[in-house]
Amino acid sequence: MSSKPEFVIIPGAWHFPDSFKPTTDLLEKAGYTSHGVTFPSTNASPQVQSFDPDVQAIRTVVDKVLSSGKDVVLVTHSYGGVVGCESLAEYVKTLESGHESGHGKVKRMVFVCAFVLPEGGSLMAALQNKPLPWFILDEKDIVNPANPQEIFYNDISPSVAEAYISKLGTHSYPTFSSQLTVAPWKVIPSTYVLCEKDNAIPIGAQEGMVAAAKAAAPRAFDVVERCDASHSPFISQPEWLAEKLIKAAQ
């Protein structure tokens, strides 16, 4: 049985794990197993009213891998950074208690232009409690992106991007107001992937979150990678990202 860590892929809002396929295919060729998480908040009906269902979906996958004795590299993207962190609340308690679980461990977290928030923070608080200009909201608690090509895939040709845009789902807006209870990047080795052409989370915001994390926990984000990609380097720069993820797993 392979001793390599296994990747748990946590996409951003509106996205499904299949959007990572250009990168996960390369990881598979390198001998790594990846597990994607699909959010209950994506295409929900009725809409979910907190991020708890998404958190539980991630926790279920992570716990399954850990209980098999394998280590995990948790890869989060965008909104996935929020729920990915919260999914490790019980795991962090185990770490802080000093008790060994006898299972695998979370070897590293990788934030791919993802939100890094403190305890008590929420995505909406990070946005100063104002919806972004490209949010399309309706009365049923649904949020959609106004211009996915420009916001998510601005370094991908429109013909390629269209296939990904057609697969985007709706997202339950109330999840953005849920508050974190844990900041696992303080105690778990973490990598941040800065994406300079990101129009969803501008590079200045990404750098600001990393700086704030380091101020709160000097050992946080011991690895910071930088690329000139959009919000979706797993599509536009899969070879580069796969290389960095394999590095994170070693």
Structure overview:
- It is a single chain.
- It contains 10 helices and 9 strands.
- With 250 residues, the chain is an alpha/beta fold.
- It has a single domain, classed as Rossmann fold.
- α8 links the parallel β8 and β9.
- α1 crosses α10.
- The longest helix is centred in the first third of the chain and has 16 residues.
- The mean pLDDT is 96.
- Pfam families: Abhydrolase_6.
- Keywords: Hydrolase.
- GO terms for molecular function: hydrolase activity.
Describe the structure using short key phrases.
250 residues; three-stranded antiparallel sheet; AB_hydrolase_fold; hydrolase activity; alpha/beta; six-stranded parallel sheet; Rossmann fold
Topology at a glance:
Elements: E1 6-10, H1 21-29, E2 34-36, H2 52-67, E3 72-77, H3 80-86, H4 89-97, E4 106-112, H5 123-126, E5 135-137, E6 142-145, H6 148-152, H7 158-165, E7 171-172, E8 190-195, H8 203-216, E9 223-227, H9 233-236, H10 238-249
Parallel strand pairs: 1-2, 1-3, 3-4, 4-8, 8-9
Antiparallel strand pairs: 5-6, 6-7
Helix pairs in contact: 1-10
Domain AB hydrolase-1: 7-243
Keywords: Hydrolase
Pfam family, one: Abhydrolase_6
Number of domains: 1
What's the CATH topology label? Rossmann fold
The CATH class label is Alpha Beta
Q: What's the shape?
A: globular
Strand arrangement, major sheet? 2-1-3-4-8-9
Pattern of helices and strands: EHEHEHHEHEEHHEEHEHH
Radius of gyration: 17 Å
Q: Please give the CATH architecture.
A: 3-Layer(aba) Sandwich
Helix/strand-derived category reads alpha/beta
Estimated share of beta-strand residues = 15-25%
Average per-residue pLDDT, rounded, comes to 96
* Share in helix: 25-40%
| CATH evolutionary superfamily | Alpha/Beta hydrolase fold, catalytic domain
Task: Give a short account of the largest sheet.
Answer: 6 strands, parallel
Query: Could you tell me the number of beta strands?
Result: 9
Q: How many distinct helices?
A: 10
Instruction: Give the uncertain stretches in residue-range form.
Output: none
Terminal Cα separation, in Å?
Answer: 17 Å
